[in-house]
Amino acid sequence: MNTSAPIQLLQVFNGGKPCGWLGQTPTSYWFHYSSNNPQQHWVSLLMPPTSNFYQQPELFPVFGQHTDRLNQLHLLNGTQLGALSFANPDNPVVTPPLRTPPLLHAGQTALIANPGGFQVRRPFADTLVHHPSCWPMVQHLQLSKKQIDPSNRLHALRWTQHVQHTHDWVQHPRPDLQPHQHQLYGFEAIHSVLNINLTQFNTLAKNRSKFAQVLQEVVRTFCKNPSAEMALLALLLRHLQLGYLNAYLVYEQATTQTAKQQPRVLGLEYLPGTPLP
After folding, report:
1. Does the pTM exceed 0.85?
2. DSSP string, 144-160
3. What one-character-per-residue DSSP string does 57-115 give?
4. Is 147 exposed, middle or buried, given 0-12, 13-18 or 19+ CB atoms closer than 10 A?
């Protein structure tokens, strides 16, 4: 394949294991699970494996959290937050992840990889790295966590308890991996859960009251501790509006051993983001 030609098909990996195919036609995008097993890991809460094939005009939000082009998804291989990664089946070479923190501009976030770890984790970075300008925000998040969730019942912001700050960067363990455990959780951006694109989500965020109502409805629908989740959400709402924080829904992926019909949602998670223009 000509390296400059648009990629029209990607193999999708979930938790480091092949799970399906993501393709593009002149008029639409499609995703096809590689197995007919309804108990397999979900790629998205809105795309359960009870249906084997999905198609729509725009790129599915769960795949389009960072880009709207398959070429760029391939380039992001190994640097995705959460379980999903991608490979070009015509040139399935995985770019080795970075071993040292890259140079970051203010507000930017990057991933670095731990060269050790279990095989299932090797395609994914073990550490999140932020520009040191994020440190005041992290300290605010630590205080918010202690204030709203002193018993640590919520999944949200547990990563802030393990943050390390140096003069070069702010780093912490990936929030989808519990410290000293190797379970990989599913991560899905809120706009993906709502089945809207990022531009539509940013437009929604400008209306504070409507934005709050929508996020509260997500909490009521999915989260197991809605009252505590809403209290924390209210405290962080302004930061979410301005883009200083990004919100994700975290879920525990079903396995064939547990034979669950759907993933168990653990709650919301918040990570530093790039402020909106």
Report:
1. no
2. HHHHH-TT--SSTTGGG
3. SS--TTT-SS-S-HHHHHHTTT--SSSEEEE-TTS--PPPPPSSPPP--TT-EEEE--S
4. exposed
Cα 242 from Cα 172, distance rounded (Å): 23
Asked if residues 38 and 49 have their Cβ atoms less than 8 Å apart, the reply is yes
Number of helical H runs and strand E runs in the chain: 6, 12
- Token pair of 165, please? 């700050």
Strand pairing category for 109-112 and 84-87: unpaired
Angle at which helices 226-242 and 135-148 pack, to 10 degrees? 160
Three-state SS string over 163-193 comes to CEECCCCEEEECCCCCCCCCCCCEEEEHHHH
Q: Which two tokens stand for residue 88?
A: 């070009």
| pLDDT tens for each residue of the chain, 277 residues long | 344 567 788 888 887 788 999 999 889 999 999 988 888 888 998 999 989 999 999 899 998 876 767 877 777 655 566 778 888 777 655 555 566 777 787 777 777 766 555 444 455 677 888 888 899 999 999 999 999 999 999 999 999 999 999 888 899 888 887 766 667 788 889 999 999 988 899 999 999 999 999 999 999 999 989 999 999 999 999 999 999 999 999 988 766 555 556 788 899 999 988 776 6
Phi, psi of 211 (to 5 degrees): -60, -45
Map tokens 């084997």 to a residue.
52
